[in-house]
Amino acid sequence: MINSPLNRCYSTLWMRYNSLAVSCLSLFFAAQTPSFATSAPPAEDSLSVRSGRLVSPQSISSNDTVSAQKLRRIVTANALQALQGQVAGLLVRSNSGEPGGAATLQIHGPGRFGDTTPLVVVDGMIIGQSDNLNWLTPNSIESVEVLKDAASTGLYGMRGSNGVILITTKKGTTGAPRVNLDVYTGVGRASQGPQLLNTRQYIDFINDSRSNGGLIPAFKLTNQSSLDTLLGTSTDWLGALMRPAPVRSAYLSVAGGNESARYLMAADYFRQDGVIRGSDFERLSLRLNTDFDLAENLKVGQHLTVGQSVQHANDGASGRTPIELAMKSAPYLSITNPRWVGGYNGTTYLDANNDTPNPIGLAALTNDRRTALNLTGDLFGEWTLLEGLTYRATLGFDVRNADRVYSRPAFNMGEYNLNLTASLARAKQTNYNTLLHHQVSYTRTQDVHSFGILLAGSRQTYRSDDVQASADNLPGNDIRSLTAGQSSRNRTVGGTYGFYRIVSLLGQLSYDYDKKYWLTAAIRRDGSSRFGPGHRFGVFPSVGGAWYISKEAFMEAVPYLNAVKLRAGWGKTGNDNVGDFQYASLIAQNYNYPFGPTNSFLGVGAFPSTLPNPGVRWETTTTSNVGLDVNALEDLIKIRVDYFRRRTTDLLVEVPLPASVGAEAPLTNAGVVDNSGIDLSLAVQQSTDLITYSVGGFASWQKNKVVSLGERPGPAFSGLVQEENVTATAVGQPVGSFYGFRREGIFQNRTEIINNPSLTGTEPGDIRYADLNGDERITDDDKTFLGSPVPTFYYGVMASVSGLGFDLSVLLQGESGRQLYNATSYWLYGFQGRYNAGTQVLNRWTRDNPSTTEPRVDASGTRNFRPSDRFIENGSYFRVKSLQLGYTLPKELTSRFGASHVRVYVGAQNLFTQTKYSGFDPEFASNQAVAEGIDRAQQPQSRMFLGGIQLNF
């Protein structure tokens, strides 16, 4: 390892940690007495240790657990996506419909300005936040527990502020080998896209736009022969880009064991094509979980997953998505044309400056192949030293090797889009994540008293190493050697190295009296290498309690309430996911400095590009919550209600500096954000001799508000769309609110323009913006807040019924109170007046059609495309997320061929969506809270139909 000051510092830190841990353990063992060894064994409903924490049999938290059966309702390559609509307080969205793409998860609203992804723990191994978990199949998961309240997330200290998701995979059981096979196949289709102009409409639109901009019309309608040639083709580019997208999956597992050894072996294959050409995802994973009882008091085991995935991505070109390219493409062009190198058509310099690349040609000719190999798991040993006293050591690892190859052959798509020589780019990245965890726990029950204590220490290290290289001017399209670039000027290379370490100590104490009163308290101390000396360590306390009211004598008068429990908690957590070396100054090299009386001499030098902030530290979240659980009518009805209040302080904020400083401003811990809300859950379940039915659901209300930005003089802007920011984070508003002008109609004549404030160059037919500050001018000072992408309400409903061998389940979910910024509609409204547009421009303002809703089009101006409420839409939606019908064959029949269980099923996903949003899909997300809710024409989710079979032997 490199002998850097940071590593020497952390070697000292780790030795101090080991010394402290050994001292704590020595004191702990010294305090034990022989009487503990002879105490009665703990009752089955006593305290236990699970996932590195003390857990009460009667939950004192608001955590939710999702079973494997519920996870399999959703067909997805990403296990976290399967949580959508199933957990109160957890908002799950797909970033896009791209196969193998990431999901965005958020617990109780955005608590910071950056990434709000919860911490993910798989079988005790803390997974890096950059991992989208598409290597883990939902079939391999036994359960997922979502930690939301203060007492639970506080146990994770500096990394618990966004909440925690604990994933437990399936394990072996005693008995004869059990074989499970689950196979399904299906097909997905994209939802209906916008209606675009045909060739005749496009020609009129382009000519009108250029005429309004003072330009010569692009199409001379007097030349009937040329016009007939153009009108002979009207290509549906969106329809050509989309395709049916098959999906197929097969999962096979074998589990068994005896009293001293248990095992589970599993293999999974998954492949899904994207609804957009050129995109697909394929995964093969193997899993082995074992545990062995080496002695009566000694247990060892391991969890191991090896997964390889291959993803072909279609990202479009130059920051423009394939859908954007398809919407902008000229309809009079055919898709292919043998005239051009590569065989795909494109525009010429005579075609109204429409420089859109052929999206079908790009999908066919370019290759963006992303391969990933994951090795994730742990080795553990558990030693029961005395009755109730257990020591456990775990060594966890998560290694990811990623390789991306991007190649483009030589082609011409018309005269605008030329790739004169073949090019090749390659990037390789390796991430190492290792965890060493020690814990000792003691639990005891005596009479009506139960208590437990847990002491733990851990060290986790992240390392990343990546290199990128590219070359062009290759001698042939099939060359895959970067050195084949014909000169060094045609080759580039770069790379980065990252290192990060966190060390932790945890102490937790739990107590309950007569299974009626529970109390738990914990304190955690974390140290992170991301912060400078003197600011690396933080202390995070938490406390929680519960009162089982229904066990009180006075509740005997209410027999229909068989369980009533009041819960409360308070705690502090942190967030160190703020980037590395914020406390240090970054030096930029290879800059020219002019010297001499005429600045004619240039010297190469370096300068500090970022000013340091030695005092930067972690962001801190303080959460308080109170909840009530009620079970009524012999557990027929279960109700849970929780109120939470969360304040995050010390958020990193950039305070602007004068441009004369010549460097970026440092980040300071100054921001404050509040989140509060209510989670309500309801479940009803009953069985008869013939059928079993259950209905459950949740509703979550939340409120988000920025309280402070420190010394920053105004809002922090983000969300860049066409070189203008469309979101702003400001005091008193939700994080990342939309920001722009309000419209007051359309100018119908010059008299209105003269008598009202307007933008420079405004003509009749242009939008009239509101002069909110009353200075008789339209400037950026007239911009205001237009809505928020943070929903105020979201919900999920799960219902199932089974009987006579049949089973039917449905999952409904949705969001309300959310606005979206439809940046895709820039093109549908005719931005820049040189690309194809949506049919809404047929109602545009003209002198013959003085529209009051659609402004004129102008190829020379963007006045009608300033950020405004024109692009704000209602993003609320209701969706039938999943519907599944199955039939289980009678055992009398299946036993004939040795099967214990056979079930066939058919299902649908994203079957129906009710929304007022005009885009492809109202469900999309960003991993940055300050730029959420902007529709950039991402690949939409597909409506999927499938069928499958499940076999157990």
TrEMBL record:
Domain TonB-dependent receptor plug residue range list: 61-164
GO cellular component: cell outer membrane
Keyword Mitochondrion: no
UniProt xrefs under InterPro entries: Beta-barrel_TonB_sf (IPR036942), Plug_dom (IPR012910), Plug_dom_sf (IPR037066), TonB-dep_OMP_SusC/RagA (IPR023996), TonB-dep_OMP_SusC/RagA_CS (IPR023997), TonB-dep_rcpt-like (IPR039426)
Localization, UniProt: Cell outer membrane
Signal peptide: 1-37
Key word Membrane present: yes
Top-level lineage group: Bacteria
Keywords of the record: Cell outer membrane, Membrane, Signal, Transmembrane, Transmembrane beta strand, Transport
Coarse class of the protein's main subcellular location: membrane
Membrane topology type: Multi-pass membrane protein
Family from the record: Belongs to the TonB-dependent receptor family.
Protein name as catalogued: TonB-linked SusC/RagA family outer membrane protein
Species, as recorded: Larkinella arboricola
Upper lineage: Bacteria, Pseudomonadati, Bacteroidota, Cytophagia, Cytophagales
